[in-house]
Amino acid sequence: MKRRHLARISFLFIVFLTVLAMHRNAYAAFSSTERIPYSDFKALIQQNRLEEVIMSPTTIKGILKPEEGQKIKKTITTVKIEDQELIKELIAHKVRFSATTNGGWSQSLFLLWFLPMIIFFILMARVRRGATGAGLMAIGKSRANLYIDKDTGVTFNDVAGVDEAKEELKEVIDYLQNPQKYQRLGGKIPKGVLLVGPTGTGKTLLAKAVAGEAKVPFFSISGSGFVEMFVGVGAARVRDLFAQAQEKAPCIIFIDEIDALGKVRAAAPVSGGHEERENTLNQLLVEMDGFDTRKGVILMAATNRPEVLDPALLRPGRFDRHILVDRPDIKGREEILRVHCKNIKLGKDVDIKIVAARTPGFVGADLANVVNEAALLAARVGKDAVGMDSLEEAINRVIAGLEKKKKVMSRKEQEIIAYHESGHALVAESVPGADKVHRISIIPRGISALGYTLQLPTEDRYLLTRSELLDRLAVLLGGRVAEEIKFQEISTGAQNDLERATDIAMSMVREYGMSEKLGPMTFQNGRRPQFLDLGYRTSRELSEDVSKDIDNEVKKIVFDTYSRVKGILTENKDRLETLAKLLLEKEVVEGEELRKIIDGKVTPQKQSPPPGLT
Ligand code: ADP
Ligand code: ZN
Fold first, then answer.
1. Are residues 363 and 314 in the same domain?
2. Is 357 a member of any domain?
3. pLDDT at residue 196 greater than cutoff 50
4. Whose CA is nearest to atom 18 of ligand 1?
5. What ranges make up the beta strands (E) of 535-600?
6. 570 and 468, same structural domain?
7. Residue 567 and residue 417: Cα distance in Å, rounded?
8. 421 assigned to active site
9. Residue pair 232/126 in contact by the 8 Å Cβ criterion
10. Residues spanned by the domain of 175
11. Can you give the CATH number for the domain in which 68 is found?
12. Ligand 1 atom closest to Cα of 161?
């Protein structure tokens, strides 16, 4: 925006100068000079009133003979016309004449090109300087993006439901409070902490709380704020920011939306802001490498798109500490609601637990919104406390807003996902060749992944045996089978699982020679056959018979595994129920708990549906 503004100013300026130059050039409009038509000029010659004529390639200037009693000689100008007779006439009438080769030219050239250029460069220089010192007004305004807070006043008590993140940040606080202590021991402290998580989960709040807890100043700036500025300004501001911060150390520099600044360079669209962003990013990297942590400056940054970040930012010595700030589970939501209800007068009928249960997928900002909206609703109808009805209505309103963004799922969907994920998890724990389950979650995240079962490999694997591949296949099918067992019906949620399952079976047959019927042969060089079929026929054309055999073998592997999984889950139907119900209640179940259920330590409860859910 501002860059365009400046361009417009310069453009207008050049237009102005051009008009002026042409004006002068054409008519040589000096104050005592009269512009006259060429015919009048010729008449003056005929009348013997001209004393001298000076010709330039485009204009003719004439000096009149002084009239009686006048001291000042009047001058006139006219545009030069191709006139063969002129010189003869001038000679005949004894007019002195001369010519300048470039008089008019040099003047107009100067005005047309050099003067505007000089002025433009002066302007640009001022703009560049403006980034660090006082400058143009526009710069002064954008400096407001940099936000400095001597004391944020935010503490860890204001941030709820992110206990793991808080735990990790305690070290940073301790360090900011006692940089000397760490210095003495030569301990290494992270320079850059990257907070990763969806928008509204409290990343900014958390960074402020770290500053508040450590009682240090908080510098914050948004990554997108850098990008819209003039060439060179972003980099200058980064320098400026670090210089200021080092003066105020110990302190925190917080860069919100760092992805706007630190996008992978090649992936960036070629646009005007591209080069500028790169300059700014490079300056940031330079500053990060240059500053000494012992001075007590900690850099924090937030992003909801870590995958687009330039790897250079994540290298050791830069943002090498990553902290996940995820959507809160039901317990976290309850805590967040309590934080925001602190200063709100609640009715006796309010049960925060129910509100938490009614808001799956909500982030902290959404919950703050619910409480605020409820207070407004209650006030509008003149109530003296915020009752459950106001909260319910507020939830509905916020859901309506969120539904546009597709974040909220219905109770029925939640149930399906709970059984689906339980299926994955139980199969993973029942077969020997699958990775152990670390965590199961049905908290909606993003649009594509509904829930997830996180398996962590216990060791790095390079080789997989046939039975291990089959076990992996089984885990993938577990979700679908669980849905079938519970609801006698299947949903579209398993599509990705089935794709991956088919991939595995396909690879087993085509690449690894693991099919009994086709034997130890490979039939395709590529790794992902379904993509490679598009114009990528490998050296070995397959006969129709072999193709059919491959299809049959793949089918057989998938179907055999399917019935195996069905056997496992039918046998464990009680556990499936227990686990799914626990998931619906808590939304997140850790691997430990899951294994307790499998060991039968958690008995199936005769459970009423969780509170508040219909
Ligand atoms: P982010 O930086 O992750 O997008 P913010 O920190 O800007 O999110 O959160 C916006 C607001 O939402 C906060 O000011 C706060 O009122 C509320 N909020 C978000 N997360 C939490 C949380 N974990 N605990 C309490 N309030 C939260
Ligand atoms: Zn699945």
1. no
2. yes
3. yes
4. 364
5. 588-590
6. yes
7. 20
8. yes
9. no
10. 145-324
11. 3.30.720.210
12. 23
275 and 186 together in one domain: yes
Region 134-153: what's the mean pLDDT?
53
pTM for the predicted model, two decimal places: 0.55
Q: Which residues face 455 on adjacent strands? A: 437
**Nearest-ligand number for the alpha carbon of 450:** 2
CB atoms within 10 A of CB 289: 11
SS3 at position 257: coil
Distance 238 CA to ligand 1 centre (A): 26
Amino acid at 524: Q
Domain total in the chain: 4
Residue 128 lies in a domain: no
Classify residue 134: in a domain, yes or no. no
E strands present in 283-401: 297-303, 321-324
Q: Where are the beta strands (DSSP E) in 71-182?
A: 75-79, 96-99, 147-149
**Which atom of ligand 1 is found nearest the CA of 205?**
6
How many angstroms separate the Cα of 453 from the Cα of each of 362, 439, 456, 569? 20, 6, 10, 16
On whether both 80 and 206 belong to a single domain, the answer is no
98 shares its domain with 27: yes
Q: Is ligand 1 within 6 A of the CB of residue 418?
A: no
**pLDDT cut 90: percent of the chain above it:** 26
Per-residue pLDDT tens digits for 326-342? 889 889 999 999 999 99
- Residue 55's DSSP bridge partners are 60, 99
Give me the CATH number covering residue 552: 1.20.58.760
Q: Which of 180-189, 256-265, 472-481 has the lowest mean pLDDT?
A: 180-189
For residue 138, what are its two tokens? 């526009």
Summarize pLDDT for 246-294 with one digit per residue, the tens. Answer: 888 889 999 998 888 777 655 444 444 567 778 888 888 888 888 776 6
349 and 379 share one domain: yes
With respect to residue 230, please indicate whether it lies within any of the assigned structural domains: yes
